[in-house]
Design goal:
The protein has 135 residues and is an alpha/beta fold. It is built from four helices and seven strands; from the N terminus they run βαβαββααβββ. It has a single domain, classed as 3-Layer(aba) Sandwich (Rossmann fold). Helices cover 25% and strands 30% of the residues. α1 crosses α2. The longest helix is centred in the N-terminal third of the chain and has 12 residues.
Amino acid sequence: MQKEYTLSQIDEIAEAILSQTKHKIIVFYGDMGVGKTTLIKILAKKLGVNELTNSPTFAIVNEYHTPNDIIYHFDCYRMEDETEAYDIGIEDYLYSDAWCFIEWPERIKNLLPNTITEIFIEKREEEKRFIHLKN
């Protein structure tokens, strides 16, 4: 999937991601402020999360519950190296069969399994984004 979108279309984008992803581990690439966390919040809502979701910038990982599943939302921005990911038990999360949404995956690239969906978001104009989904 490759598509340009605005914030008013984000629900549609989230639905397209969920219908097209082949994997429950989804990694998000994009510059700071491009909308990764906003998109993850909508994805969590579409999966059935009713609680307030926010960025796990300082906690590194937040856990959310749906009626049928668990979602782990990672923000690896503050990780200095992959050792920190090992310290939080990242392998347990990644191989738990739960949804894993990972921001700044380049910080832990050697730890990611081969079966992931990659999402690249880039800012085109102030209100426009371009998304590329790669399974």
